[in-house]
C-alpha cells in the first residue's frame, strides 16, 4: 500500500467517524432538548381559562381553577354594590395601594365592571380558601358584618371587593388576576388587555 492510499484511507475514516459522531450527537441532543419544553399538561395549567357567566345570577358565585389556584367570579347584586361603601373605615387597605391587582381593577369595586368581581380565592395570610359569607350580621361575625369572605383558618375577613379588614392576620387584599371580557358573557382569566369590555 502506498503512502497516498494510506492517507486517503485515514482521511476517509476521519471524515466517516466525524459524520457518524455528529449524527449520534444530534440524535441524542434532540430528545434531550425536547425534554426541556413544558409538557402539554404544564402548558394547559398556565393557559388562560374561559369563564362563561351568561347563567351566573345576581348574587351568585362561580368557582373555577387557573394555574392550580381557585378563582372566584362573583356577580354582585345592586344591594351588594351598595354595601361595599358601608365599611371602608374598617378596612386595612381600602384603596388597594398595597395589594395585587391589575391597574384596571384598582378601584373600590376592584373590577372592570362593578357587578362582576374576579378574585384569586387564597387568603393572603397562609393561602387557605375563604368561605363566602354574604349574609348581613350573622351571630359569629358580628352586627357590623355586611357580607364578604371569611377565612376559617385564622379568622381573616374580606369585604365584597376582597379588601381585607384591619386587625386580622391577612396582610393584604385578596389578589385580582389579570382578566378581560371577550364579550358581555365571557371572561378570559389569565389574559390582560386592559379595561376593554
What does this structure look like?
The protein has helices at residues 3-34, 40-46, 78-84, and strands at 49-52, 61-66, 69-75, 116-120, 131-133, 148-150, 157-158, 179-183, 186-189. It has a three-stranded antiparallel β-sheet with strand order 1-9-8, with no helix packed on it. It has a three-stranded antiparallel β-sheet with strand order 2-3-4, with no helix packed on it. It has a three-stranded antiparallel β-sheet with strand order 5-6-7, with no helix packed on it. The chain folds into two domains: 1-37; 43-189, Rieske Iron-sulfur Protein (3-layer Sandwich), CATH 2.102.10.10. It is of the alpha+beta class. The longest helix has 32 residues, at 3-34. The chain is elongated. The protein has three helices and nine strands; from the N terminus they run H-H-E-E-E-H-E-E-E-E-E-E. A hairpin with a 2-residue loop joins strand 8 and strand 9 (186-189).
CATH homologous superfamily designation of the largest domain = Rieske [2Fe-2S] iron-sulphur domain
> What share of residues are in beta strands?
15-25%
Strand order of the largest sheet: 1-9-8
Please report the distance between the alpha carbons of the first and last residues: 84 Å
Residue-averaged pLDDT, rounded?
87
Q: State the name of the first-level CATH class of the largest domain.
A: Mainly Beta
Give the helices and strands, then pairings.
Layout: H1 3-34, H2 40-46, E1 49-52, E2 61-66, E3 69-75, H3 78-84, E4 116-120, E5 131-133, E6 148-150, E7 157-158, E8 179-183, E9 186-189
Antiparallel strand pairs: 1-9, 2-3, 3-4, 5-6, 6-7, 8-9
Amino acid at each position: 500500500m502506498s503512502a497516498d492510499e494510506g492517507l486517503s484511507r485515514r482521511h476517509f475514516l476521519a471524515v466517516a467517524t466525524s459524520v457518524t459522531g455528529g449524527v449520534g450527537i444530534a440524535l441524542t441532543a434532540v430528545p434531550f432538548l425536547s425534554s426541556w419544553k413544558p409538557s402539554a399538561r404544564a402548558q394547559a395549567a398556565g393557559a388562560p381559562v374561559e369563564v362563561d357567566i351568561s347563567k351566573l345570577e345576581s348574587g351568585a358565585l362561580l368557582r373555577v381553577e387557573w394555574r392550580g389556584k381557585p378563582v372566584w367570579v362573583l356577580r354582585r347584586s345592586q344591594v351588594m354594590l351598595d354595601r361595599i361603601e358601608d365599611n371602608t373605615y374598617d378596612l386595612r387597605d381600602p384603596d388597594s395601594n398595597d395589594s395585587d391587582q391589575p391597574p384596571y381593577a384598582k378601584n373600590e369595586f376592584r373590577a372592570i365592571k362593578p357587578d362582576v368581581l374576579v378574585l384569586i380565592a387564597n387568603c393572603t395570610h397562609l393561602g387557605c380558601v375563604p368561605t363566602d359569607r354574604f349574609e348581613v350580621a350573622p351571630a359569629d361575625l358580628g352586627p357590623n358584618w355586611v357580607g364578604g369572605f371569611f377565612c376559617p383558618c385564622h379568622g381573616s375577613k374580606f369585604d365584597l371587593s376582597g379588601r381585607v379588614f384591619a386587625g386580622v392576620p391577612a396582610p393584604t387584599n385578596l389578589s385580582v388576576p389579570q382578566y378581560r371580557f371577550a364579550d358581555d358573557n365571557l371572561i378570559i382569566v389569565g389574559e390582560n388587555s386592559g379595561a376593554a369590555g
